[in-house]
Specification:
Length: about 80
C-alpha cells in the first residue's frame, strides 16, 4: 500500500478498509464521485499488479523453499 500515490491510497482505504460507499468516500474527500471512482479503479489496478508480481516473485511457497504451504520438505528450524 505504501507504493500507491497518496490520493489513490486514501481512496482505496476508505472504500475497502473503512467500508464507505463511493458517495460517502467522495464526500469525505471533497471530490466528485467520478473522481473517487477513477482513483479507486487506478488503485485497484496497481494493487492487483503488485499482488501478481508478489505471487510471481514473492515467497518461496511455489518453489518449495522455506517450508511454504506447497513445500515438499519440512520447515527447518535453527
Amino acid at each position: 500500500m505504501e507504493n500507491l500515490p497518496v490520493r489513490l491510497r486514501v481512496a482505496f482505504r476508505l472504500r475497502v478498509f473503512e467500508g464507505l460507499t463511493t458517495s460517502e468516500a467522495a464526500t469525505a474527500l471533497g471530490v466528485p464521485e467520478g473522481t473517487l471512482k477513477a482513483r479507486f479503479f487506478r488503485a485497484r489496478m496497481q494493487v492487483t499488479a503488485l499482488m501478481r508480481q508478489y505471487d510471481q516473485f514473492g515467497p518461496a511457497r511455489k518453489t518449495g523453499q522455506h517450508g511454504g504451504a506447497n513445500s515438499r520438505r519440512p520447515l527447518e528450524v535453527r
